[in-house]
Amino acid sequence: MAEEQGIRARKGENFSEWYTQVVDKADLADTRYNVQGFIVHKTWSIKIIREIYRLFETALEKTGHEPVLFPLVIPEENLKREGEHFGFVPDVFWVTEKGVGERIEKKLALRPTSETGFYQMYSLWVRSYRDLPLKKYQSVSVYRNEPVTRPFIRGREFLWIEAHDAFETHEDALKQVHEDVENMKDVVWGELGIPISVFKRPPWDKFLGAEETFASDVLFPDGKVLQIGSTHDLAQKFSIPFNIKFVDKKEDSKFVWQTTYGPGIWRIMAALIATHGDDRGLVLPFSIAPIQIMIVPIFYSDKDKKDVMKKCRKLESALGKDYRVQVDDSDKTPGEKYHHWEMFGIPVRIEVGAKETVGNFVTVYRRDSMTKEKVADKALAKSVEKLSVEILENLKIKAQTFLESKTKSPKNRHDFLRDLNGGGIVRAAFCGREECAKEIQNETRGGKVRGTAFGKHEKALGKCVYCNHAAKETVYMAKQY
Amino acid sequence: MAEEQGIRARKGENFSEWYTQVVDKADLADTRYNVQGFIVHKTWSIKIIREIYRLFETALEKTGHEPVLFPLVIPEENLKREGEHFGFVPDVFWVTEKGVGERIEKKLALRPTSETGFYQMYSLWVRSYRDLPLKKYQSVSVYRNEPVTRPFIRGREFLWIEAHDAFETHEDALKQVHEDVENMKDVVWGELGIPISVFKRPPWDKFLGAEETFASDVLFPDGKVLQIGSTHDLAQKFSIPFNIKFVDKKEDSKFVWQTTYGPGIWRIMAALIATHGDDRGLVLPFSIAPIQIMIVPIFYSDKDKKDVMKKCRKLESALGKDYRVQVDDSDKTPGEKYHHWEMFGIPVRIEVGAKETVGNFVTVYRRDSMTKEKVADKALAKSVEKLSVEILENLKIKAQTFLESKTKSPKNRHDFLRDLNGGGIVRAAFCGREECAKEIQNETRGGKVRGTAFGKHEKALGKCVYCNHAAKETVYMAKQY
Questions:
Q1: Considering only alpha carbons, which residue of chain A is nearest residue B100?
Q2: Which of the four, A72, A230, A446, B317, has the lowest number of CB atoms within 10 Å?
Q3: What is the pLDDT of residues B421-433, one digit of tens each?
Q4: Tens-digit pLDDT profile for residues A403-447
Q5: pLDDT band at B2, cuts 50/70/90?
Q6: Which among B38, B70, B100 is the nearest to A40, CB-wise?
Q7: How distant is the Cα of B76 from the closest Cα of chain A, in angstroms?
């Protein structure tokens, strides 16, 4: 068997090439499908992605969301009903024909997002305050005609969740925004160990049709940020054109207040690869590793093989009660197996050879720290339990340290431009003017205002760091994907 | 709160109307979406469907299948590459535009089935016998321009699994066909208690592009059958045009042998509703019930409420370790709750009132038999465990008895026509001629040859029961959905 090739690019030197190689070599995606911008999701990415979905779905259902599935296609007339939202049209793929050249009368959009599909039904489903809050979500692919694509970062077909909620009052809707942000933090930081920065986007960078947009950014190793999800206060901007009304306790008829929340499952996958991966490949936390523990038998004789395999199977069945465990009993050499499963990011490897069998211990390898230690058989269960926590803690510390090292608070224009050009997140006093934001973006070739810190009141004193007008607010800026 | 309305139609009298009402009242689908033939999947159906997916995915992965996800869109040129398969074109929805009226050069089909998407990649993925067998599946929606639609039975967008396997030899492929049939039986009969009849389809009823088609039919209460899944021996009919070659152990280059298997998740959902449901609504077996046990508190005073709720929560947390359990603590009356959860098919209801609290017992209601019994608190865990098995057994017996009562073996033309017209499955000697099959179909307004029994060798003696030519085989016929 030909030896598997490792990643040649270094994450710290050429992140872009490193990312491409990990996607290829860890069996995540194949970009050779013959429709531009559409990728084949390979087995390992699907297995990871379904664990990410499980985390979000469980968390969403705990806070009263219920799953539904709406049609892929949305009539053009729905997209047009809310004026700003119609701005999605340049991004849309249209179904216009069926069968042999038969024209479809009213052309159908492949969902770029599903507000306008959901809300016509909400106008049928909501009658009374008793029907509220209405909190539904779907886990689906969406379609946008992106000019430039990158697996899991930007695609013409990508995976996400969209939650569409309706409430009696604006206050309830704003509470939901907070709940959504907590949901994102709980999963992405809490379970995956990826630090996120949550911002209220500036008015010129809102979701089309939203009153306010709140979004989560992840800082990538190359100093650019990626938005991995957002939640929007829609106020009554959709409920009025879609006529979603309820009768309240006083028997008055009112329009509902709405929010929409989209955890970008694809981009969370990208952030997972980028944040924790290293020069050997993926590094996965326990929570979403499709295989959490890989047991590798090592033997050089048939006699050893029997004892070693017996121990491996015993460990597999004991640990299998609490973890996703596998024994790699393939024909590869132990070294090849190590290499392969390190590429795939399995958090813990247990090596079992003749020494381990005789000595009643195993050798435990941690993917995150690349360290080995001997653990007595009796202590193994405890040890693995401890590792499942420690590995995540270690990944969190590393990632948080990186983010902090790349977050700057320049006080003057010169330092500001240097920091923003240098990559990372720049915190600075800002005048609040779109015109100024545009100038900054031009001068730094892409440095953008990401917004104000969510849930904090950070006053800005003095002048805008760039234009010297009076400062209105403290904002965070970064180059973006 | 307005009392929920029950199903007015009787399953035994007007199955079609009964089915429509269950779909509506058990929160399964909303057919009012403004694109003809596309439905909104509501919460309860999505929750059941994901359990059905879980059963199939677990079973498929146990036999070496791995999940992938291929693009929704397939270029027209792919569909054309295998001549017979191109016959799918009249069923296809086409994406032809993007953005504001921009024409897409090569139009894209919404996948009606994904052979021609998968196999161009298989030609890149398969190099050597070491890459075989290659067994991949995806869980997705597919799109077909059906003229007439019915929720879960026939739709323009429907949910299924498609598994695409490649092998070194035709023998391996034929073994896979048997494994697929076992998979279908294990899940649909074994876990869901729905009897299936597996047939080798006649040559004129094969999948477009297949060498042989083997399909599973379920008999519906109205005497018509629904195909719920099929597996196909593709031989080398796709591997040659798609150039999927491997180098064997002798270093010879050969085309792979392929199978494709499609469990129709939607139709299995339809079969589940139709087979087990009754005049109160759905009846779900334990395996896929989103809630397996519903605990209903009954109290008429605040003092009772406290004790009753305490016991309910205690039961919820004890049973919750092994089952999907919920306490209905809503404001509805106990009667309304019973009615509601019977409609939704929850297999077991536990009633807890003041009597139960004082007496250290509970009242256990079985949805399948609509019977109640008192169970001592101490015996409850054992009792529920027993019920989880007994309910399935009871559903199986009922369904199998119905199928047998509706399967006839007429010996002459008169009885044959009477039986086929009367609904159900008719087993008869047949000449094997497509022409005769067509005449039967015309005369009976839809009676079709479903094929020969899979895996049995049923000789036919004498004459064709319809045309009196020499009999070639024993076939099964029925009217179909």
A1: A90
A2: B317
A3: 999 999 999 999 9
A4: 999 999 999 999 999 999 999 999 999 999 999 999 999 999 999
A5: very low
A6: B70
A7: 11
Q: What is the pLDDT of residue B4?
A: 64
CATH of the domain at B473: 3.30.110.30
Mean pLDDT, residues B372-377: 98
Mean per-residue pLDDT, B21-38? 97
Over residues A265-293, the mean pLDDT reads 98
Residues A345 and A417 in one domain: no
- Cβ pair B310, B371 in contact under 8 A: no
- What total of structural domains would you count in chain A? 3
For residue B246, the domain's CATH number is: 3.30.930.10
Angstrom distances, CA of residue A363 to CA of A295, A311, B244: 10, 13, 42
Which percentage of chain A shows pLDDT scores above 90? Answer: 94
Domain co-membership, A133 together with A254: yes
Q: Find the CB nearest B120 among A34, A47, A124.
A: A34
User: Residue A456's domain spans which residues?
Assistant: 407-479
A229 neighbors A56 (Cβ within 8 angstroms): no
Whether the Cβ atoms of residue A156 and residue A141 lie closer than 8 Å to each other: no
Residues A221 and A311 occupy one common structural domain: no
Q: Are residues B189 and B219 in the same domain?
A: yes
CA distance readout (Å), B393 to A361, B188, B336, B367:
46, 13, 29, 13
pLDDT of residue B1: 40
Average pLDDT score over chain B? 96
Q: Are B341 and B380 in contact (CB under 8 A)?
A: no
A9 located within any domain: no
Closest CA of chain A from B158, distance in Å: 10
Amino acid (one-letter) located at A152 = F
Geometric angle at alpha carbon A261, from A259 and A263, rounded to 5°:
175
Residues B51 and B189 grouped into a single domain = yes
Q: How far is A292 from A276, CA to CA, in rounded Å?
A: 16
Distance from CA of A361 to the nearest CA of B (A): 30
Does residue A68 sit in the same domain as residue A210?
yes
CA separation, residue B288 to residues B39, B47, B188, B263 (Å): 22, 9, 11, 16
Q: Supply the Cα-derived Rg of chain A in whole angstroms.
A: 25
What is the pLDDT at residue A4? 64
Which ranges of A63-91 would DSSP assign to H, the alpha helix? Answer: 76-80
- Chain A residues inside the 8 Å CB shell of B89: 99-100
* Stretch A64-68: mean pLDDT: 98
Render pLDDT for B242-282 as a digit per residue (tens, 0 to 9).
999 999 999 999 999 999 999 999 999 999 999 999 999 99
Q: Please name the amino acid found at residue B84.
A: E
Cβ separation A43–B32 shorter than 8 A: no
pLDDT, tens digit, 9 for 90 and up, residues A449-481: 999 999 888 888 789 999 999 999 999 999 999
Among B40, B94, B130, beta carbon nearest to A68: B40
In whole angstroms, give the CA distance from residue A220 to residue B249: 46
Inter-chain CB proximity A143 and B72 less than 8 Å: yes
Range with lowest mean pLDDT among A143-147, B182-186, B361-365, B456-460: B456-460
Q: Given this model, what pLDDT does residue A1 score?
A: 39
Could you give the CA distance from residue B407 to residue B199 in angstroms, rounded to a whole number? 15
CB contact at 8 A, A476 and A221: no
Helix count and strand count (H, E) for chain A? 12, 23
Of A38, A43, A130, the CB nearest to B68: A43
Rounded CA-CA distance A464/A434 in Å is 13
Same domain, B431 and B467: yes
In a domain, B282, yes or no: no
